[in-house]
Amino acid sequence: MADPDVLSSPSGSDDDNDIVTEGSAFVHNEPAQDDKDLPKVESEMEVLHEKVKKQIIKEGHGKKPPKLATCFLNYRAWVKSTSHKFEDSWQEQRPIELILGKEKAEMAGLGIGIASMRSGERALFHVGWELGYGKEGNFSFPNVPPMADLVYEVELIGFDEAKEGKARSDMTVEERIEAAERRKVEGNDYFKEKKVDEAMQQYEMAIAYMGDDFMFQLFGKYRDMALAVKNPCHLNMAACLIKLKRYEEAIGQCTIVLSEDENNVKALFRRGKARAELGQTDAAREDFEKARKYAPQDKAIVRELHLLAAHDKAVYQKQKEIYKGIFGPRPEPKPMRVKPGAFRPVSQQQYLEVLHPDLWWGSHGTHVHQSQSLADL
């Protein structure tokens, strides 16, 4: 049975571009943290080259990339002696493309490391200055001092050997769209096999073929063709991320789709789901209401709106109980009880001495005659 967390199309069935999640749980490692400090890794140090050493952070799967394979990766780099971080593709949220055997001279050590990796693997590489920025260093961007040993943290998303080392920039529009489509289909197949790590890597690689620089150049039918591949990959990534409880990232994937198609029902629904999980109920309701406008018969949308209404009611009742506990019920006024003998009669003189001393004592120190009554005063 299809998982109710995934929105079906208005017609009631998912198209071939979208994944259908089954009722199962997945485990996926969190992305590398945006930390300025060098990561601490306790795994064994492996010597790949006299100037390149490796420590595995997370094991990968499958085979290693051959020479001339187009590799897609994220990495960050530090100067080892000062722990100065000078590059971070995770922070830029844009995977790097590197063709093994054709990398720049300053990335020779990094290329040796990547050749030892498998898809999905994350590792730390210690690279000597001879295979980095050399004796002179680099004083533009990135800023690397002379003779600086380097440390790289790298995640190999995957690689493509189909074009035998042909870079994305050298591909035709049709070739890039075809490569992205192939990755998307492979990702869907992996997901159906419940291999969520492999599926997400394929989606990331497909999206990498459809980078901003590429999409900016497309118009008309070519742009439509590219979006027909790119947007489902973002939506499928969002569905995976919701399952993994990585809600902020899921929101980001949906927002990318909505920047191209503001009325995309699946993007609105999944972003609403992620926002609701983060407690952003007003924003979630706004997404669900807009999705219902374009798919009024969709039961999943109606259900989520009912859940939000129930949640709001529960929150109100809880707050009501909390305030009741703090302030308590208003006390009833108690009647004043007077003890017998609490009051006693006073004489005219005592009354005037206390309440009207000026009348009692007069202006020359003589008191008013006792025969005068209170009425006369």
Automatic annotation (TrEMBL):
Region (Disordered) location: 1-39
Molecular-function annotations in GO: peptidyl-prolyl cis-trans isomerase activity
Keyword tags: Isomerase, Repeat, Rotamase, TPR repeat
EC number(s) recorded for this UniProt protein: 5.2.1.8
Tree of life domain: Eukaryota
Catalytic activity: [protein]-peptidylproline (omega=180) = [protein]-peptidylproline (omega=0)
Enzyme class: isomerase
Cross-referenced Pfam families: FKBP_C, TPR_2
SUPFAM superfamilies: FKBP-like (SSF54534), TPR-like (SSF48452)
Occurrences of domain PPIase FKBP-type (ranges): 68-160
Positions of TPR repeats: 265-298
ATP-binding listed as a keyword: no
UniProt protein name: peptidylprolyl isomerase
Organism: Musa troglodytarum (fe'i banana)
Phylogenetic classification of the source organism: Eukaryota, Viridiplantae, Streptophyta, Embryophyta, Tracheophyta
